[in-house]
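User: Ferrous iron transport protein A. Structure?
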Amino acid sequence: MKTLKQVPCGQTVKVTKLTGEGPVKRRIMDMGITKGVEIFVRKVAPLGDPIEITVRGYELSVRKADAEMIQVE
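Assistant: Predicted structure:
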């Protein structure tokens, strides 16, 4: 089991599960991040926050805490 936070730059991964609850999970889903969607990791800030990703053609920034709630394969 791997989370988005552990994915190195330049890799594309597929979302398997969202583990957050309530408003946090809703915020992640509002970004278009749902089970089965592919995420490309473009850039990770030096301290790991934020993580810049591409989802469904959109470029987004995800906080490290949110990235830990996105399980990928």
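The chain has a mean pLDDT of 94. Residues 28 and 66 are 7 Å apart (CA to CA).
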